[in-house]
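Q: My labmate handed me this sequence with no annotations at all. I'd like to see what the chain might look like in three dimensions before we decide whether it's worth expressing. Could you predict it?
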Amino acid sequence: MEAMRESWTDDRLDYLNHKVDDGFKHVDERFGQFEKHVEERFGHFEKRVDERFDDVNRRFKETDRRLDEGFKQVNENFKQVNENFKRVDERLAHMESRVDHLSKSFLDLGKSIDFSTRALIATLVIGFLTIVVARL
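A: Here is what I predict for the chain of 136 residues:
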């Protein structure tokens, strides 16, 4: 092994040092190219991701806007339904008072008819008795 050490001259060490430096420069250049390539790819990828997120945000905003419009329309429909129910309630209250009035009128009429019927029967009985007595 010592024979090998003796054969390493300064020129040979300088040459080796130069070759190693050249090799590292070459590796550095390759890493630089690779780094540049990776940055370009990630830049492109990042741009595509940003575009897609922008598209998703746009779609969410559009969906949100449409939902807001839909809810406004539903609220308007509920207001109209509520107004219709109020009118129906008013009509039912009016009809209920009229039904109460008609019911009272029918009861009064029933009482009148009952009295009139008795009076008619009494008149018929008296008339029949008068005819019978007159024939005797």
